[in-house]
Structure formats: C-alpha cells, structure tokens
Design goal:
The complex is a heterodimer of chains A (about 120) and B (about 110). Chain A is built from no helices and twelve strands. With about 120 residues, chain A is mainly β. Chain A is globular and about 45 Å long. Chain A starts with a strand and ends with a strand. By secondary structure, chain B is mostly beta strands. Helices cover about 0% and strands about 50% of the residues of chain B. Classes of the chains: A mainly beta (about 120), B mainly beta (about 110). At the A-B interface, strand 5, strand 6, strand 10 and strand 11 of A face strand 4 and strand 5 of B.
C-alpha cells in the first residue's frame, strides 16, 4: 500500500523567511500528488497538484512544489512566508493511470507557525 | 454553490450511544469519502464510495458503517460510540478522475465521553 511521509511535524518561521516542507511517498508507479492547506478552524483546501508535465508546479498564494521522481518527493516551497500562512499543510498521493478508482492517501501534516 | 455540507458540526455522545453524520454534495461528483483527523496522525480514510451504489473500507473502518444513499449523500454511522472515536470527521467528494481534487466539508467535531 502506498504511504506518505511528512518528516517535519512542526515548523516555526519568521515572516519573510523561506519555506520548504518535505513530502515523500512510497509507491513506485505513476502518481498524482497534492498539497492541501488547513487554516485554523477551517476545512482543507487545495494549494496545488501535479499529475503530469512540468515537475515544478505553481499553486495559489505564491506556493510551488517540485516533483522529483528519483527521490519519490514532492516538496512544498515558498520564497517568503507571511503571518497569514500559519496553517497545517498536508501532502497527499493517489495512483494514476487507467487502473480504475484510486483513493487519496494523506501524510500526517506539518504545522507551520509564522511569527510576525 | 454550497459544495460539501456536513451535519452536525458538533456532537457530544456518551459511550455506547449511536449517531449518524450526514454529508451531501451538490457538485455532481461520483466519489465521496469520510476521513477522521486526529492530532499527529493527519487524515485517515474511514470509508469511501467510488460511485453511487458502492462503498469500500479505508484505513480505519472498524466501528463505523456508511451508506451511499444516492449520488449526493454519503452518511457515516457510529453504532456504539467509543472514546477512541473522539475526533474531527471530514466528508469529501471529487469526480472520478484521479487527477481531480478533493473538496472537503467543514468538519464535524465529535466527542465521546
């Protein structure tokens, strides 16, 4: 079964610092990759997704992620964080291809706290 | 567009009581999901329904049952609640496309005493 690892459970940054959150998955086949964000008290929202093409994906609010197939990774980055980026971030993976329905598996999340 | 609607938003139960969490989506999505979210454990899939008329177990199905009532509605039932089921429950839906994003409801916070 596929699994998703997010090694940073808690990250604390000052405003304007750069952010990189790690995500690794264990499935060896073709995958679709997602980053979701959950702001305090809210439900999860999609930040960005990758399923084919350019491995550098740009999402909303200045976030981007790079798919590195050889490393089974899909790290999330932002050059300069803001206080409003304080949230919990989830990486998720599903298998792709014409193999029928595939469920989405989530990592355990990374809590980001940005201090003003 | 309401998206994904869950009820109730908050519920307190005593051990052994039963309850049903309701979920409805108005986006004509084929697949629907129930997740639970616990501190340090992220989101874990309880049950999912790939299409109307089908349901399948996820990672943590024990103690739960589901019903895909029609294309719009997917309910989660706790027959005999236990303190270990204290959690925040999220319903989600998406198209059948594996590249499609999940759309989440606002969550239901359940406390079992």
């Amino acid at each position: 079964a596929q699994s998703v690892s997010q090694h940073n459970h808690h990250v604390i940054l000052s405003e304007a610092a750069s952010l990189e959150l790690g995500c690794n998955y264990s499935y060896g086949g073709t995958v679709n990759l997602f980053w979701y964000v959950q702001y305090p008290g809210q439900h999860l929202q999609l930040l960005l997704k990758y399923f084919s093409g350019d491995p550098l994906v740009k999402g909303i609010k200045g976030f981007e992620a790079e798919f590195i197939k050889s490393k089974f990774s899909f790290n999330l980055r932002k050059p300069s964080v803001q206080w409003s980026d304080t949230a919990e971030y989830f990486c998720a993976v599903s298998r792709s291809g014409n193999t029928g329905f595939q469920k989405l598996v989530f990592g355990t999340g990374t809590r980001l706290l940005v201090s003003p | 567009n309401a998206g994904v609607t869950q009820t109730p938003k908050f519920q307190v139960l005593k051990t052994g009581q039963s309850m049903t969490l309701q979920c409805a989506q108005d986006m004509n999505h084929n697949s629907m999901y129930w997740y639970r979210q616990d501190p340090g454990m992220g989101l874990r899939l309880i049950y999912y329904s790939a299409s109307e008329g089908t349901t399948d177990k996820g990672e943590v199905p024990n103690g739960y049952n589901v019903s895909r009532l029609n294309k719009r509605e997917f309910s989660l039932r706790l027959e005999s609640a236990a303190p270990s089921q204290t959690s925040v429950y999220f319903c989600a839906s998406r198209t059948n496309s594996n590249t499609g994003e999940l759309f989440f409801g606002e969550g239901s916070r359940l406390t079992v005493l």
